[in-house]
Specification:
The protein has 3 helices and 8 strands, in the order E-H-E-E-E-E-H-E-E-H-E. The protein has about 140 residues and is an alpha+beta fold. The chain is elongated, with a radius of gyration of 16 Å. This is Pyridoxamine 5'-phosphate oxidase.
Length: about 140
Amino acid sequence: MSRRVLEHLEVADCLQLLGSVSLGRVVYTEKALPAIRPVNHVLDGDAVVIRSHLDGGLATAVGSGRGMVVAYEADDIDPVEQLGWSVVVTGVAHLVADSREVARFEILLRPWVDIAMDCVIRVEPRLVTGYRLVDPGVVSRR
């Protein structure tokens, strides 16, 4: 197997790929240390929306009212073929306060874990980056 080439993705391609999967990882600061949690998501325009529980570290940190800088990463990489992609959205996370919006996301975004997910968090992107691992002998799928 030949070595793979790393291809930079445009923002629109990143968002399209991010919308094609439902699981990723949110990276945030908890007690001055980095924390990473797997969560499911939906896209709302270019914003990433996740649900959390009010007692969780992420909701507590984001709930301060000022918002919090977070990163959200999702990928789809085949470990056998060593092909795939990774997208990172870096932005400011805020609790969604509008009750109609919360109700809409409660329908669209079902938690995977058996725990009350009683808050909705929206990550407004400031930076969207992505890369695709491609076979150098095959033309890019742009």
